[in-house]
Amino acid sequence: MELRQLEYFIALCEDLHFTKTAEKLNIGQPTLSYQMKTLEDELGVRLFDRLGKKIAMTEAGEILLEHGIKVFTNIKFAIEQIDELQKVKRGKLVIGALSGDLSLIASKVLNEFYATYPYVQIQLYAVDDAVEKVKQNEIDLALTFMSKPDDSFIHIPLYQDEFYLVVRADHAWSDMENIEFSEIQYIPLILNPIGHCFRKLLDEACLSDEINLQPIIESTDSKTILDLVEEGIGATIISSTLFLLENKGSLKAIKITNPAFHKQVSIVYHKQKYIGTAAKGFIEILMNFLKEHRGLEESYK
Question: pTM for this structure?
């Protein structure tokens, strides 16, 4: 079996039409028919049922298609790895991080990454749904929350992040150490808008507890939200990570209880995506940063 025959076979499986496939491959239809007949003779099975001008894959054809796609995927990965071996530290890395604390965390490691990989072009986007961007192959890595398991992705768990109610340090509630989850609906809140990944997670938790949130202000920008809280305009709900990174002493974090609200933060990339040296380097730098930072957080707690 030749790779060319396998390439022709996969193309024919897409169109299930000899004439269209031959035109797409820039070969004559007799050549395509001959190659498919040769392939069937070599395997000793029929790959297509020919029903007049129409064709359909046989069970054997479906098996060969599944494994044929894997063959070309592996060849593609091999070429990418060899190409990177030649480039060493050149290339481009596109990262999507959930807007807010995760995009802030990702930005914190850019200096060290650039110092290590000065010839790699890095693009960092703050997005509301990083997982969808991975699925559409628009980004290489995502730093995000994963609410539901998905076998099409590789997950690298980083840490569990707990969320707090945050008010100004001199606020009337600043003496409180805890607040029950059900009580947050009675507080003027400044939150991410509906559709934002974190807001979706929060709304799901509220729905299960029959809590109705009606924020007084909505914004996608975490800094704007915290600035408004510092001005004494309401409260917000943010992760302990963002609180530690952004609090300059003017804010107070109040633990949410019954239940506590926390989520798993992960690096996510597509299972079929080749992760090269630069991406692995970014992951390593990020994990080292978080290891140091989480130690500080444990001290805070």
Answer: 0.59
